[in-house]
Amino acid sequence: MALKTLLKLTLVFTLMVIIMGAYTRLSDAGLGCPDWPGCYGHIKVPTADHELAKVETHFPGHTVEPEKAWLEMIHRYIASGLGVLVIIILASCLKSREAPNKLPLFIFLLILFQGALGAWTVTMKLMPVVVMSHLLGGFTLLSLLTLLYLRTSGFRIPGGDSPMRAYRTLALACLGVLVAQILLGGWTSSNYAALACTELPFCEGDWSQNLRLADAFSPFQGTHPSFEFGVLDYHARMTIHVAHRFGAMITAGLVGLLAIRLLRRAHSSALRSAGGVLLLLLALQVALGISNVVLGLPLVVAVAHNLGAALLLVTLVFINYALWRKV
């Protein structure tokens, strides 16, 4: 299989892992299997009588919930497939004299760390800082695979796009702000703060007088039997939610500005098209965010919001690569 084709397949798998991870998390199935990498000591969800008897012996006090357990295991199966693909990519790049070596090696090390984070997510009972790190790792992996694909494909804009090179700093700032917003989104989700505010544009009541920044953003939240459904009080969760909304406004403003600049001033069709895609994705992402609040966090909308963030990230990685690459 050609390296470019392999990378395309791996990017699809990475998106599937991100989507399935979001679906599992938002379905409250993150602890559907209390052990790792199997499920109650099995390679699949135990359903037979002798398997359930073994569960009662080795996991006293636990009840197998097949629907949640299968969500978690399917997520693990896809993630395992992604790991295999990354290993194949690394081997292919090491064999080739033309392909980069350092970036595939870093991606391989990242996938190993992602596996460890996946295990800790379960063993540490959904500790928010671990869950958020696992989510960020998935987005980082997506970004690096996109970058590797662009490098191996030899993509460049012939002659460059001199009018847009003046906006390289803006493009980089947009990428940084989006990453920060993804972090805020992960922190909001892992602390079950998505429904802490149910009014627009900010929050209901006297929210500005009840912000608790220290409590809201402390990575250490004490010792608890489980962090499922969150351990923070309402004011801390409200603070997280409000921060995510302010972050969304800043992100929308900067990314929207970049998209308009690309549409109006870019000479190359590739960058103009990227500007159009960026603006469309941004509009959809804002609409999905508002829908989450108005409709009470429907599962499909919430998962689509995660996918929208991933696609925005890929688009901004492409734009930055195109603008910063040497002509």
Task: Break the fold down into its secondary structure elements and pairings.
Elements: H1 3-26, H2 49-58, H3 66-95, H4 102-123, H5 128-153, H6 162-165, H7 168-190, H8 213-216, H9 234-265, H10 269-294, H11 299-324
Quick structural summary:
This protein has 327 residues and is mainly alpha-helical. Helix content is 69%, strand content 0%.
User: How many DSSP H or I helices?
Assistant: 11
- What does the average pLDDT come to? 94
Tell how many strands the DSSP assignment holds.
0
Strand content is under 5%
- Distance N to C terminus: 30 Å
Order of helices and strands: HHHHHHHHHHH
**Estimated radius of gyration:** 21 Å
Coarse structural class = mainly alpha
Biggest β-sheet description: none
What gross morphology would you assign? flat
Helix content: 55-70%
Contiguous uncertain segments of 5+ residues: none
How would you sum up this structure, described in words?
It contains eleven helices and no strands. The protein has helices spanning 3-26, 49-58, 66-95, 102-123, 128-153, 162-165, 168-190, 213-216, 234-265, 269-294, 299-324. It starts with a helix and ends with a helix. Helix 1 (3-26) packs antiparallel against helix 3, helix 1 runs antiparallel to helix 5 (128-153) and helix 7 (168-190) packs antiparallel against helix 9. The relative contact order is 0.12. It is mainly alpha-helical.
